[in-house]
Amino acid sequence: MKGYLWTSGLEAGRGEGSSYGHLAPWEAIATDAVGNVIEFWGFKRNQGRVWALLYLRGEPFTAGELEHELELSKGGVSMLLRDLERWGVVRRMRSPHDSAWRYAAETDLIRMVSHVVEEREAGFIERIRADLAEAYRLAVEAGNVPREHLSRLEKMATLAEHVERALRLFIKTARLDVGGILGALREDSNRQ
Amino acid sequence: MKGYLWTSGLEAGRGEGSSYGHLAPWEAIATDAVGNVIEFWGFKRNQGRVWALLYLRGEPFTAGELEHELELSKGGVSMLLRDLERWGVVRRMRSPHDSAWRYAAETDLIRMVSHVVEEREAGFIERIRADLAEAYRLAVEAGNVPREHLSRLEKMATLAEHVERALRLFIKTARLDVGGILGALREDSNRQ
DNA sequence: GGTGCGGTTCACGCGGTCTTGAACTATATG
DNA sequence: CATATAGTTCAAGACCGCGTGAACCGCACC
Fold it and tell me: In the structure, how far is the CA atom of residue B73 from the C1' atom of nucleotide D2, in angstroms?
């Protein structure tokens, strides 16, 4: 039992097992597909589902609507939206009459990837480098470490640097590469 | 049985209770660092640790030695080595006198990444594409789906293709990019 | 103040993944 | 053949991250 059911009279039954709120079957498939791919990339599946639905429907949703459509919990939606907003893939907007926030899909998903990859790097790859440096320091200090061992350790560190550089390069080129298609996406969402 | 063995005074160092078999402190740090980064890339932490130790020590190890040094279980080592061998980052060799297999680190780690990424793509990205196509089919069939919704769904699919292409490109360039440094790695291991 | 509603936070439980350890197979050795 | 040792498989369990749902906060309106 996910959350509380909507009191709207439209509630057309439908209640069997793998049902999604009000989503049309094709929407369920599409949002799930995005969810899967996004999960594969190391994010949360539901982050992908939320973004996908917002994008497909093309109009801003409230948290409550998302909760209902995707059958998520109130708390879950809150956290998902916070992450998505922080990464710039979802825009929070106050709609004129309604008192609730609404959220709209931003079209350059690549922000999500690049932002998070960078974020991870910051706290993580940095740490790796520090660890390798520390290991080197200790090894030298110990004194009895064979020279080749030391040199391999050094090479390992430079390998790490190279991989990191390659990764950054990827992000940069990916941004450009996907830019084209995303330009197309954007022209659509301008309409509103 | 996380180590009721080997109480060498040296390993007091490491922050908490995580003592490592015979590893020198610097080795423990280095292998762990590699383990972390490899885990971050979606593999098992211990796969990274095994490779790292083999590489750092520069000589082939038996499964039993790895089991002891890294404090892993027999079964675990067996599975880890099988994966690593399958990916071509570790080479199995029968040593002349000993009756047991020995394993040596191969130097182009990128094989691991590229192999697995490709493997994942095969079964996975393909699936995503199929799902999006299916969603499109259903949406058209339903008939009452707004035109813009359909067009956004299409764009989503082309986005997926672009990302996939970018990914392949990354693998290819990464292979080259890291090739240089890995050539250096290799020149070292030749020497024995 | 009180009530209702949107939104946030967080301890807990569930589900999935990795590791373990024991049973088992394979292979060498006397 | 018997025995020992290397290596594999797999069920059970440890472990960890995610989503849930309830408590909580803040604000608007009566």
Answer: 28
